[in-house]
Amino acid sequence: MAETSDTRTPAQIEADIRARREVLAETLDEIGVRVHPKTIVGDAKAKVVANVDHTLGKAYVQVNRAVSEVRAQFVDEEGAPRLERVVPVALVVVGVVGLLAFGGRGRRGGRRRKR
């Protein structure tokens, strides 16, 4: 094995050791921050928030698209209602509400007896 001779002075060696200790101390501090429970929890919260924001964004787009599609069925390009589609739906809604309102009365006991 060939030996390499170190031409540094003792002061240079000590300065190198100090510099490496400082770098090592900074690295250990960074590792300490990364593995600290608060940092881990904060990172996890940030990921959850990002995922929720992404999911809500996608849901918003889908709902907006669905509303636009439904609206297009009942309103023409100029914004005027399409009566041939609005009137039948309105009649069905009125009929269902009427059935619910009047149909429920018969099931609640009908005529009351006098005592």
The N- and C-terminal alpha carbons lie at a distance of 118 Å
Number of continuous helical runs = 3
What are the secondary-structure elements, in order, as H or E?
HHH
Class of secondary structure makeup:
mainly alpha
Annotation, overall tally of beta strands:
0
Apparent shape? rod-shaped
Largest sheet: none
Radius of gyration: 38 Å
Helix content: over 70%
Average pLDDT value?
88
Q: Unreliable segments (pLDDT under 50, ≥5 consecutive)? A: none
| Estimated share of beta-strand residues | under 5%
Tell me what you see in this structure.
The model has no long low-confidence stretch (mean pLDDT 88). The chain is rod-shaped, with a radius of gyration of 38 Å. It has helices at 10-35, 37-74, 83-107. With 115 residues, the protein is mostly helical. It has three helices and no strands. Helix content is 77%, strand content 0%. The chain starts with 9 loop residues before the first helix and ends in an 8-residue tail after the last helix.
